[in-house]
Design brief:
Layout (H helix, E strand, L loop, with lengths): L1 E6 L6 H15 L3 E6 L15 E3 L14 H8 L3 E4 L2 H13 L4 E6 L7 H9 L2 E4 L2 H11 L6 E3 L16 H6 L7 E6 L8 H8 L8 E6 L5 H10 L6 E3 L7 H6 L2 E4 L8 H8 L3 E6 L9 E4 L3 H13 L1 H18 L2 H15 L5
Parallel strand pairs: 1-2, 1-4, 2-3, 4-5, 5-6, 6-7, 8-9, 8-11, 9-10, 11-12, 12-13
């Protein structure tokens, strides 16, 4: 069986990481798999050494929607199935299904943001749709009229599995001036408006005086500069660390004490899954499928509720450890990479008949 994984660009987001992971996982299971992107390069292109990757644009035109020669590439690669990942790829999915009715085009729902018209059109015409949370499946049915029997829920997989024995990264804490009693909050995400890192800074500014804490942001993006200015305005420049993009953030998971997420829209955040798998408790706004990831949730946009849920964890390491253990067990059971890979393989076997 030949599978084509379609993604517009390998920026540093969770969907892009999942695209690379799934390409690698399908290939390791013996499927002939190609990752096809519209644009070349991207922050995650450094992780492509062991997979087959092609780009449509001969050089980076900096246009996420521009997919020159897509139909020709599909004819040449002749896949049995196409898995469309991300908004732009899903916008093309319906057209691909119409042009190649004998190929199993599978759309995905991996976002908490409203869907553009071409995306909505595709959902009605592809062979099947994969949602990465039960909440996303409900939205597909209630808001976009996709029949429930045409949607399968396959959760995100743990992309950065922790070592069998977790060991606290004291060297990194020392490098970033976090002492033994400093409580480190971690946020790993692109700086986009919907990720809403500003709220985390506003909440941190209300923490009790005298408490030793730091807030680490791992990621980059258009909202970073504004967040840096806000931290400086709040007098938090020494406590809030902007650490930039890291292709593998595992060392930061191993050095932190608590994961924090104040996104305004999500489907199922990879960050929380990875944090829990690495033994971190989390507090997050309850949006989209966040509650399916585990951890503590509070009403979206309610900074006071977030602060109230956060403060006991500051002062009680035993409480943090207990809640972290629960979240970790859930993550390793529900988001196991092998389990997720097998779910996709079973779906392909059910839907797609390889060409003879």
């Amino acid at each position: 069986m030949k599978i084509l994984v379609l993604q517009d660009y390998l920026r540093s987001g969770g969907t892009e990481r999942q695209s690379i992971y799934l390409t690698r996982a399908f290939a390791s299971a013996g499927l002939e798999t190609v990752l096809l992107t519209f644009r070349p390069g991207g922050a995650l292109s450094v992780r492509l050494d062991d997979i087959v990757h092609r780009s449509l644009q001969p050089f980076d035109c900096r246009l996420d929607w521009f997919a020159p020669g897509l139909a020709r590439a599909v004819r040449i690669l002749a896949p049995d199935g196409i898995l469309c990942m991300g908004r732009m790829a899903n916008c093309y999915a319906g057209g691909l299904q119409k042009k190649f009715p004998y190929i199993g085009v599978i759309g995905t729902m991996r976002t908490g943001k409203p869907l553009p018209s071409l995306y909505r059109h595709s959902l009605q015409h592809v062979w099947h749709v994969v949602a990465n949370s039960h909440e996303a499946k409900s939205i597909l049915a209630a808001h976009y009229g996709v029949a429930r029997e045409r949607v399968s829920v396959i959760h995100n997989s743990i992309v950065f599995p922790p070592a069998d024995t977790l060991k606290r990264n004291e060297a990194l804490r020392t490098e970033l001036d976090a002492g033994p009693t400093t409580v480190v909050f971690l946020n790993v995400a692109m700086f986009r408006p919907e990720k809403n890192q500003r709220d985390l800074i506003e909440i941190a500014a209300k923490l009790p005086l005298g408490v030793k804490w730091q807030l680490w942001f791992v990621g980059d993006g258009p909202e970073r500069a504004a967040c840096e200015r806000l931290a400086d305005q709040k007098g938090l420049a020494s406590r809030v660390k902007f650490l930039g993009f890291h292709a593998d953030p595992s060392s930061y998971y191993a050095a932190a004490d608590l994961a924090a997420l104040t996104s305004l829209s999500e489907s199922l955040p990879n960050f929380l899954i990875e944090a829990h798998a690495h033994g971190l408790m989390s507090v997050a706004y309850d949006v989209g499928g966040v509650s399916e990831a585990g951890g503590a949730v509070v009403p979206s946009g309610n900074r006071d509720a977030f602060l109230a849920r956060l403060q006991p964890l500051l002062f009680d390491p035993a409480l943090r450890a207990s809640e972290a253990a629960t979240a970790q067990a859930r993550a390793r059971e529900n988001f196991d990479p092998e389990r997720q890979r097998q779910a996709y393989l079973d779906l392909f076997s059910c839907l797609i008949q390889p060409a003879q």
